[in-house]
Amino acid sequence: MTENEIRPARALWGYLTGTRWILAGLLALELLAHAASLVEPLIARWVLDEMEDPDRVLTPVLVLIGIAVAGLVLAWISTFLLERTAQRVVLKVRRNMVNKLVHTRVDVVEQHPTGDFLSRTGSDTTLLEDTATGPLVSAASAPLALVAALALMATIDPTLLGLVVLSLVATGFAQRRALYRVGDASEEAQEHIGRMTGVLQRALTAFRTVKASGTERYEERAASDEAERAYRAGVCGARAEATVEVVSMAAVDIMFLVVLALGAAKVVSGDLSLGDLVAFLLYMMYLADPIEDITHAATSLAEGMAAVKRIEQLRSIPHEEPSHERQPAPAFTPNGGIRFENVSFGYPNRPLLRDVSLEIGVGLTVLAGPSGAGKTTMLSLVERFVDVDRGRVTLDGVDLRELNRAELRRRLAYVQQEAPLLGDTVRAAALYGVPDPEHADLEGALRSVALHTWVAGLPRGLDTPVGERGVAVSGGERQRLAIVRALLRGADVLLLDEATSQLDAVTERTVLHTISGHARAHPVVVVTHRLSIARHADQVVLLVDGRVQAVGEHSELLRGNAMYRSFALLDKASIDENAFPARS
Ligand SMILES: Nc1ncnc2c1ncn2[C@@H]1O[C@H](COP(=O)(O)OP(=O)(O)OP(=O)(O)O)[C@@H](O)[C@H]1O
Fold first, then answer.
1. Which of 137-151, 192-206, 325-339 is the most confident on average?
2. Ligand 1 near 324 CB (within 6 A)
3. How far, in Å, CA of 56 to CA of 122, rounded?
4. CA dihedral 381, 385, 389, 395 (to 10 degrees)
5. Atom 9 (ligand 1): residue with closest C-alpha?
6. Under a CB-based contact definition with an 8 Å cutoff, are residues 156 and 280 in contact?
7. Are residues 414 and 486 in contact, defined by beta-carbon separation less than 8 angstroms?
8. In this predicted model, what pLDDT tens digit does every residue of 242-297 receive, in sequence order?
9. CATH 1.20.1560.10 is right for the domain spanning 3-315
10. Atom 27 in ligand 1: which residue has the minimum CA distance?
11. 182 close to ligand 1 (CB < 6 Angstrom)
């Protein structure tokens, strides 16, 4: 066995922790069932030997019936337990995968196709269900049953047994290659199913764009191409599986015929009694069962191992939380805040922030600058979605990398650029991630961003469904609901990434007042292209090409920085005194 085969086998063994005793019990039951079947030919011989005496034949017949009934009861119990155990194993693996996924790093999730994650968690684990218990028990019990049957056959006629063993070994060799093909084909099929899910997931997420671009056919083709590749791999696997099965069946048939011919000759020559030949042939027929079980177990395990490989790849994604983090975080002091100290950061093969130093205290800080300058990345560093390459970012003087990540994030409220809504209803979306939703002033927060009248007009008020991904809500409403959620978190620091970009001027004015009010007691960082808010900022940071080009008040930058002035001129509201009242 190569390391590539041993690793998934070891992983599968790991999944069985906690259910191994049940499996051992099931194995015992299975062996009992096999033992019962093994005794049957002996009793059949007993029946044949007693045929001439009707009084004595009744006992072996009754024993035969008793064994058959006991076999059926055992079969029911073991089938049920096998299924239940398989479900438990799959549940455990799914929980573990979900845990891995939600606790992994942001960059891992953002760089990996979502559909593939979904497919591994859903469809690969379903495949595991067929492997987790039944084939494993068969793989352990069937060979034992086979050996026991062979041992009993040896007591009848060693020459005939030699023939049978030879045939079995030859069969195993003939099936080997086909079994590898079953595993490879299954892995390939699952790979394509993952890609198909990815294509569909992407298309359905941007469904309006797909419709408006008239690209339904393109997306359809992309998804059905992947479905077809999965089908082709599946057919290839089915072919290999059929080969494995037929080789087994042929082996059993050929063995039976050869033994029958040779055995009959031996009976004629007087080397073997008729009863012995019948018993040997019954064992031959009995052998068909464990051989079929081994064949099924081998093909199921080949498919299961392919699924385990893909599950393990997902389970090996890195966890976000390094162990060295200190906890708890120091208490927030009003004079504290965030500080970037000579920070440099780059994405793989793409240097971005260069020697950024910046102090963000209580008050409103606006991060402005051209697209791609690194503004969102600066917020990502504060949230520790990514970590600095050089320098450090501190909160209240403590390096963020020394803080417990969960504790750090509890102290931050963040609205990401697309302001997605999570939660089924308006209420759930507004209270998502709020630590004490019972006591949150939802009404007041909605009023502060001018959403209260909108909510009052909804058919079911706060309990109105927002639709998947919040599509039943307009862009501006979504952004304001996201701001409500951030405000209600009661965090020390508020981070807003383009959170007002879809608001009309009047609504924006109300929201900016709320944000400015919040900034009187908290550090608030706003990333924006719309400089209307900059007039009210305590400091505006102009970030260009990953460097801080200028820091100052809006009016200072207007006077002293040509690039900022050109941005502001294009955004008339930022220099129009009447756009909304200036900061008092
Ligand atoms: N996860 C990532 N992996 C690789 N490159 C990234 C990643 N995230 C952002 N970038 C790149 O880093 C640069 C800065 O991105 P960032 O989102 O920080 O800019 P920004 O100033 O917020 O831009 P915008 O104003 O357009 O939102 C961009 O060129 C972007 O392509």
1. 192-206
2. no
3. 59
4. 40
5. 377
6. yes
7. yes
8. 998 898 888 888 888 888 898 899 889 988 888 888 888 888 887 888 888 888 88
9. yes
10. 371
11. no
For residue 495, report the distance from its CA to the centre of ligand 1, in Å: 17
Query: What six digits make up the tokens of 30?
Result: 């299975």
The pairing of strands 523-527 and 493-497 is: parallel
- One-letter-per-residue 3-state SS of 185-199: HHHHHHHHHHHHHHH
pLDDT tens, residue by residue, 445-492:
999 999 999 999 888 889 988 876 655 788 899 999 999 999 999 889
Distance CA 564, CA 572 (A): 13
Q: How far is the CA of 375 from the centre of ligand 1 (A)?
A: 8
Find tokens 């906690």 and name the residue: 18
CATH superfamily of 354-411+494-584: P-loop containing nucleotide triphosphate hydrolases (3.40.50.300)
- Contact indicator for 345, 377 with CB cutoff of 8 Å: yes
pLDDT exceeds 50 at position 579: no
Assess whether the region 354-411+494-584 and the region 418-491 belong to the same CATH fold. Answer: yes
Q: Are 348 and 135 in contact (CB under 8 A)?
A: no
- Residue 541 Cβ inside 6 Å of ligand 1? The answer reads no
CATH superfamily, with its number, for domain 418-491: P-loop containing nucleotide triphosphate hydrolases (3.40.50.300)
Expressed in angstroms and rounded, the spacing between residue 373 Cα and the centre of ligand 1 is 7
Could you give the CA distance from residue 386 to residue 318 in angstroms, rounded to a whole number? Answer: 13
CA angle 543/546/552 to nearest 5° reads: 25
Indicate which atom in ligand 1 lies nearest the CA of residue 380. Answer: 18
Say how far apart CA 122 and CA 115 lie, in whole Å: 10
Would you kindly state where each structural domain of the chain is located, as residue ranges?
Answer: 3-315, 354-411+494-584, 418-491
**Ligand 1 centroid to 369 CA: how many Å?**
12
Amino acid at site 244: V
Percent of the chain whose pLDDT exceeds 90: 35
Cis before 328? omega within 30: yes
User: pLDDT tens digits for 348-375?
Assistant: 888 999 999 999 999 999 999 999 999 9
Residue listed under structure tokens 């290999």: 240
- Rounded-to-integer distance, Cα 183 and Cα 490, Å: 53
More confident position, 75 or 472: 75
